[in-house]
Write a structure and sequence with these properties.
76% helix; mainly alpha; globular
Length: 257
């Protein structure tokens, strides 16, 4: 039973991300490089967040009570802000790299920022999902019985579905964020930041899995629709894609802009 739980939760959390990697990235070496660099940038944001948390714990001490509660809220807020700062830094790096590729070899078409936004977002999401869920996933192998003391027996499943939504949201956030930077649309950047904060805050009501998961998936659908149209999608292209009649759909053959 524990092995089935482990495999099921792993497939739920990382299956879609693995499929996206295999079908859209694995065949292009340059995309793999950008994905790895994006994951590395997320790791850098985690390192900086950990340092901030460590300093804050030293300043406030290890006393229990309201201080620790506010410290946890501060940690989540700071972590989200740092992640978005590193997303912006990665955008700047990709922008410079794209311009450099064009100047070195003007005859060869450089990757579009839409494609790079998707790849970097997937890198952020995969690394975020791995660090947030790998320890929980290892515990699903046992020993022990979830819910024996009155807790929810669906803890591992809920954690897997929350990890999935976080991974996909990072992809959508990356697309919308990069488009906002390209168009200098501050409202788009603000929406990405606020929705990221909101989804992170939903983890504070973990015992109420129905509320947190439903809210997170509603935000994911909203950001997914936004990212779809930002990436150049339309109702017509979606219809052609579903009917397998569109050979040049969205991210596969994007032209530089």
């Amino acid at each position: 039973m524990t092995a089935a739980m482990f495999l099921g939760c792993a497939c739920i959390a990382f299956g879609p991300a693995l499929a996206l990697y295999i079908f859209t990235i694995a065949t292009e070496p340059l995309r793999i490089i950008f994905l790895i660099v994006g994951a590395f940038f997320w790791l850098l944001s985690l390192l900086l967040s950990s340092l901030v948390w460590f300093v804050a714990r030293i300043i406030t001490g290890d006393n229990d009570g309201p201080i620790q509660k506010y410290l946890l809220i501060f940690g989540v807020l700071g972590s989200v802000l740092i992640q978005e700062m590193f997303r912006f830094a990665y955008y700047g790096l990709l922008k410079k790299a794209n311009e450099g590729l064009k100047s070195i070899n003007p005859d060869e078409e450089a990757p579009s920022m839409r494609l790079l936004a998707y790849v970097s977002g997937l890198g952020f999401g995969i690394m975020s999902g791995v660090f947030s869920f790998v320890n929980t996933l290892s515990d699903s192998l046992g020993p022990g019985t979830v819910g024996i003391h009155g807790d929810s027996p669906h803890f591992f499943l809920n954690s897997a579905f929350m990890t999935l939504v976080i991974i996909l949201l990072h992809v959508f956030w990356g697309i919308v964020f990069f488009d906002g930077c390209e168009r200098r649309n501050r409202y788009a950047l603000l929406v990405v930041l606020l929705t990221h904060l909101l989804v992170s805050a939903l983890t504070f009501i973990t015992p109420h899995y129905g509320i947190s998961l439903l809210s997170a998936y509603m935000i994911m659908v909203f950001m997914g629709v936004w990212a779809f149209f930002v990436a150049g999608g339309s109702c017509r292209s979606l219809k052609l894609c579903l009917l397998c009649q569109d050979k040049d759909f969205l991210l596969f053959n994007q032209h530089s802009r």
